[in-house]
Known about the structure:
Elements: H1 11-22, E1 44-48, E2 51-60, E3 66-67, E4 70-71, H2 72-85, E5 90-101, H3 106-122, E6 126-135, E7 143-154, E8 169-172, H4 178-188, H5 204-213, E9 216-220, H6 226-238, E10 241-245, H7 253-262, E11 276-279, H8 284-292, E12 301-307, E13 312-315, E14 321-323
Parallel strand pairs: 5-6, 10-13
Antiparallel strand pairs: 1-2, 2-7, 3-4, 5-7, 8-11, 8-12, 9-11, 10-12, 13-14
Helix pairs in contact: 2-3, 5-8
Amino acid sequence: MKIGMAHGAGGEVMTDLISETILKNITKKSVNGGIGLDALDDGATIPLGDSEIVITTDGHTINPLFFPGGNIGRISAAGTINDVSVMGAKPLAITNSMIIKEGFNIDDLDKIIKSMNETCEEVDVGIITGDTKVMEQDKLDGLVIVTSGIGIVEKGKAIKDSSLEIGDKIIVSGSVGDHGMSLMAFREGFEFETDLKSDVAPVWGIVSKSLDVGGVTAMKDPTRGGLANAINEMAKKSGVGVLLQDDLIPVKEEVKTISDMLGIDPYDVANEGKVLMGVKSDLADEVLKAIKKDRYGYDSEIIGEVIEGSMVLVETPVGGTRILEAPIADPVPRVC
């Protein structure tokens, strides 16, 4: 068996690769009793005194490097910042390792680094170390960026994606499918009279406002595999079921149009500036109100609740119910 594109696209195929090949060959997967690799969360924690250091790492191979709403620099910074944020930690710094194709345009690289810096400045995050390599033209497609992120949280206060509780409300911080569908439309050369663009953005503002209110039980950013993969992963790890309301999940009309044309479910498509969270029912309305005040959370919604069971269900506007399964892989490859 050989590696295919699906092995890096989120969903069940990638999960199998990680569990069957990677995890089995690593012995020490955590430090000082913190959240480790076995948890398969968005990051890990290292307890130190009264605090916990949160650390995450991410590789970025997006195609194209420049797209409506951003570029590989913005998505590298935001994606790493977001993985730290949804662990409930204040992001402090990222690292930046770049593998650059020989002959790459320096002006383009300049734009990418500036975009990365601007994204970090939004949430007061430093770019504190890095590495640069160049490879022959026939060995690399453009540019690969690998970033790691560091944050800090009070000891015992890190938020896992496996802590949903029955009765929790499910909140998504905005419309789903924007990133993957905007890239797909751009790749295919579709021409619409629309301003649809990627949602790529740092979500620490959304997360911090939610934490200030309280009641957040679990969080995840629905990147590869989209909403469907993220909510299934959260439910499975938590040992619960989830009932979503189809008519409450925000999806832009442009995303619906492109999805219908391509036969792709927008719930399966990557997002790069959204948070999916479980919140105690008595605080959900207050958390939603706080999130809507953030520049990136204005169209957030309560979209369902945690129930007994083991499946993620979606109730349609006409009263029917369907199972929302995790995708085999992200239907739009190389979007993050």
